[in-house]
Structures are given as C-alpha cells and as structure tokens.
Design goal:
78 residues, 0% strand, mainly alpha, elongated
Length: 78
C-alpha cells in the first residue's frame, strides 16, 4: 500500500529534526571562521598543485611565499 503525503511529511520533519541535532547551529563568528578556513584550505591545495607544476625559480619562490602565508593564516584560525 502506498504511503500518503501526510506520513511522508512527518518522516521529513523527523529527519530534519535529527539532522539539526547532529549539526548544532553555529554562531555567526563560528560560521565566518569555518568559511574562511575552508577557503584558505582550498587556496593551499591550489598553491600546492601549482608549485608541483612550476618550473621557473622565481615563480616557485612566489608560490612558496604565498603557501607559507596561507598556512600561517590557517594556524591563526586554529
């Protein structure tokens, strides 16, 4: 027998409640810090990939400095 829309709605509400319990709400400051950390992590990955492909010594040096700066920023965030 097919389930009615009411039982699906109840199931969705229960699922949403369980999901909220697993993922507590973050404060605006925590959300900003998390977003910045994720962005810095993506930048670090990009720089590491570019560093592996760089041939020019000056370009490699620039990438290494940028990578060091990104890693320092990540350390500040904790």
């Amino acid at each position: 027998m097919a389930r009615g829309w009411e039982s699906k709605s109840v199931e969705e509400q229960q699922s949403a409640r369980e999901e909220r319990a697993v993922h507590p709400r973050l404060t605006p400051e925590e959300m900003e810090r998390k977003s910045k950390r994720e962005s810095l992590s993506l930048d670090r990955t990009r720089l590491q990939r570019e560093l592996q492909q760089a041939c020019n010594a000056r370009h490699r040096g620039m990438l290494e400095q940028a990578l060091a700066h990104i890693e320092a920023e990540i350390e500040k965030l904790g």
